[in-house]
Known about the structure:
By secondary structure, the chain is of the alpha/beta class. It contains 16 helices and 14 strands. The chain folds into two domains: 2-200, Rossmann fold (3-Layer(aba) Sandwich); 289-434, 3-Layer(aba) Sandwich (Rossmann fold), CATH 3.40.50. It has helices at 10-21, 33-40, 51-60, 70-74, 97-109, 126-140, 161-166, 178-187, 202-233, 237-245, 266-279, 285-309, 336-347, 360-364, 402-408, 423-428; strands at residues 2-6, 25-29, 64-67, 79-82, 115-118, 148-151, 171-174, 197-200, 317-321, 350-354, 372-374, 387-390, 413-416, 432-434. It has a six-stranded parallel β-sheet, sandwiched between helices. Strand 7, helix 8 (178-187) and strand 8 (197-200) form a beta-alpha-beta unit. Helix 5 (97-109) packs parallel to helix 6 (126-140). The longest helix has 32 residues, at 202-233. The model has no long low-confidence stretch (mean pLDDT 96). Uridine-5'-diphosphate-xylopyranose is lined by residues 154-158, 213, 216, 220, 254-256, 258, 260-263, 265-266, 325-326.
Amino acid sequence: xxxxxxxLGYVGLVTAASxxxxxxxxxxxxxxxxxxxxxxxxxxxxxxxxxxxxxxxNVDRETLSFSxxxxxxxxxxxxxxxxxxxxxxxxxSADLTNIYQVIDSLGQLLDRAVTIVxxxxxxxxxxxxxxxxxxxxxxxxxxxxxxDIVSNPEFLREGNALYDVAHPDRIVIGARSRRAFxxxxxxYSPSQFTCPVLEMExxxxxxxxxxxxxxxxxxxxxxxELSRLADAVGADIEQISIALGTDDxxxxxxxxxxxxxxxxxxxxxxxxxxxxxxxxxxxxALTNSIQQxxxxxxxxxxxxxxxxxxxxxxxxxxxxxxxxxKPDTDDMxxxxxxxxxxxxxxxxxxLRLYDPVLNAAIRxxxxxxSQLEFADDMYEAVRGADAVVLVTEWIxxxxxxxxxxxxxxxxxxxxxxxxxxxxxxxxxxGFTYYGVGRP
Length: 439
Ligand code: UDX
């Protein structure tokens, strides 16, 4: 099929590259012409494993191209994806300015009926509002045509995006006409996608996305809250998570206790969901506490370190391993490392920070403080340090050389914020070990 993707940020670029790889002909458009120049050379403005290769491959075989003019990008296209950003506004609601700018332009440019697919995460009712706005614009130009507006939310995870798009658990399609459902079924042809395709009203599709993210986040907050009780009573949250996850009705995913979730999606979508509840006058105690528990979890863990040192925290040096909000991404949005660094600095510690993808953008996110420095190597970060705090579980931290580590550190103390290490091994190597909810 002939497809345009408008907005080549994270979701848009992954969508464009993945669809072109299944044989569709895709043109990507973005208002940022410098970004387009880079994309022609398969230079990706963020870190996502495999994406640069996928872009290069499909540019080469001419299933993927880019255009700097919207008019050219949408010419002869059957489906137009919109994947522009919907950042949170000051009241937590999603800011839809970018989407409506695109809709206005499409209203001026379109001269045929096309299917418009909203990939951006948008509050319930947006699909219907877009339908009204776009089709009124077309009518005001004297055109007797009606475009189908489809909600097709994305469930991909950063760092696993290409796999998630190629192997979805389900495809959610919110539309109002048989024609639109059939177009989308042709796009996600059964020869490529064998998962269930769920047809529903646009409002249900829109809310499904928020529901999925809030539900996953609530599981994380639940185990994190429980981990504090486990800590207090001498139980092991890792074993409890297994006991929970092996119940078929519960399932094993998103039950890992740690420093809480970060990233662009969970925090933003929960704010937006809260806003929707408030708008409808519905009190959602549950949704409100997901975020609160998440934020408290950073405090809970920082307090462990601060208590360990007592007055000696002033004058101590603590190394932080892993700064991005999770492994295999360079995304720092809502990363727990930011809050932890602030809390430890405030308590008087000097910090040495390391991340496998440390770059200027990551450095800039931390305060310019004489007590905070960066290291280019994980072992360099711990030289003379009094403790290591494992913040993000990058694979290179999984099996450190404990004896080298001990040799470099002033005092051998580990704060394992992701329960990555075996406490027995760490202790047998001579470390004082603190995990999350582990005896
Ligand atoms: C998430 C959703 O998974 C995805 O479907 C949606 O489209 C976007 O938001 P993402 O933010 O990329 O994806 O990362 P994900 O792997 O889901 O992890 C989110 C956060 O939760 C990370 O900070 C991770 O460290 C944390 N997490 C995850 C836990 O703390 N415990 C867990 O058990 C799982």
